[in-house]
Design goal:
single chain; 15 helices; alpha/beta; Rossmann fold; 5-stranded parallel sheet; 9-stranded mixed sheet
């Protein structure tokens, strides 16, 4: 009897590259030190560039010592006999600005070049990735949002974050800088050469909702973040993405076609249309939605009234959407990726995922415990395939999305 091999988590090989790291005047500037260290550990050459305000939060000498490259602040640097911003742009494969303040976003949206970093962004020969960091009210301000929209129309500029979380004064909201691991993951996608170019990918996300009456419903705790992360990263890597989502409060990722549904039957209908006749309209399906197993047998037209008596609700089984597609598939396409969110020990969760892999005739199952996956920004999972298991440590959902998509890419390439 053969057993699947267990592969240990390892840092993927990364082609040597050079990144200009811009640091602006935000309290989050201290995270840029960790970001630089992470990039260096991955074999990236880091060229630090600070604004004058950024240099007040973290001393340039810190980056000089860490990166082995002189941290630059002044465009009028007498030690460099030429146009410093042009030279930096020529050396950098990408410009990464983390943190990016509201002021800096405003300046580059206007095409200004009034300091070294802004001038560098203007002449960058590769992509520009910005990680905003500011108070939530600054991020929500209409002026900031106008600048963000203007930059989103620039094909060179991409955003990572901001995210919801505590900011410097202790308030919580949308404005906190994305974590360094997520920023590195987004940068990897920008520099990956769009390795999923042309792949037609369908992703499901979020919970489904089964209505009992006009007030009450049955659902689950899925936030949709995992599916949205997969959709976002797949689009950034060049895939044509359709995202079918249950009710969630999440923005549509850039470049993604979004289809909103409510119930399991509505998701089934949307999937049928997205996959096309004979499943011919998709190369990959990633089924990360937490589809409800049951629905009420009856939808009450009016609100069900409270009484002192016990209440029984008859539930009917919903169709198994992934198993239905697995049974319908006549060849190796589309590649089918399922999720198994379970309770129990790690071994029990993986064993359940392996059973699901066989029963539903799918290619990969991402197994994780409900306590790890639901609600938060991170996840801990094991990718289960017929001949192997790959346990992954705790990581952001964006980083996990990339690991899943890496396996999708490898499997698609093996079929050619």
């Amino acid at each position: 009897m053969t057993h699947p091999t267990t592969q240990q988590t390892s840092v993927p090989a990364v082609t040597p590259r050079t990144v200009a790291l811009g640091v602006t005047g935000s309290v989050a500037a201290f995270k840029a030190v960790e970001l630089a260290r992470t990039l260096l550990q991955r074999g990236t050459r880091v060229l630090p560039v600070l604004t004058r305000s950024g240099a007040r939060f973290v001393a340039p000498m810190t980056f000089t010592a860490l990166c082995g490259e002189r941290a630059r602040v002044d465009m009028w640097d007498d030690t460099f006999p030429g146009e410093l911003h042009i030279e930096l742009a020529a050396r950098a494969d990408a410009v990464l600005v983390a943190p990016a303040t509201a002021d800096f976003l405003a300046r580059i949206a206007q095409g200004r070049a009034d300091d070294l970093l802004a001038a560098l962004v203007l002449v960058a020969r590769g992509p520009v990735l910005v990680a905003p960091a500011m108070h939530p009210r600054m991020w929500a301000n209409p002026a900031t949002q106008r600048n963000v929209r203007a930059l989103q129309h620039d094909d060179r500029v991409r955003f990572v974050g901001p995210v919801v979380g505590p900011v410097a004064n202790g308030e919580v909201g949308l404005g906190r800088m994305a974590e360094p691991s997520d920023i590195v993951s987004a940068l990897d996608g920008l520099l990956s050469g769009r390795d999923l170019q042309g792949v037609r990918l369908v992703v499901t996300a979020g919970p489904t909702v089964e209505d009992l009456d006009p007030v009450r419903f049955l659902s689950n705790r899925s936030s949709g973040r995992m599916g949205f992360a997969i959709a976002a990263r797949a689009a950034e890597r060049g895939a044509q993405v359709k995202l079918i989502t249950g009710p969630v409060v999440l923005p549509t990722p850039t470049g993604v076609e979004r289809i909103d549904v409510r119930s399991a039957l509505q998701m089934q209908s949307a999937l049928h249309e997205a996959m096309g006749p004979g499943l011919s309209s998709a190369d990959v399906l990633v089924m990360s939605a937490a589809v409800g197993d049951y629905r009420p047998s009856r939808l009450h037209e009016g609100k069900m009234k409270r009484s002192a008596d016990a209440l029984s609700i008859e539930l009917l089984p919903n169709p198994d959407l992934l198993a239905g597609i697995g049974a319908q598939r006549a060849s190796s396409r589309p590649l089918l990726v399922g999720f198994a969110v379970e309770t129990g020990t790690d071994d029990e969760v993986v064993a359940y995922a392996r059973g699901k892999l066989m029963r539903k005739r799918v290619d990969m199952v991402v197994a994780n415990a409900a306590s790890d996956g639901f609600g938060g920004e991170t996840n801990r999972a094991t990718i289960v395939e017929q001949d192997r298991e790959e346990p992954l440590g705790q990581m952001s959902k964006l980083a996990l999305a990339d690991r899943i998509l890496d396996r999708v890419r490898e499997r698609l390439a093996a079929e050619r």
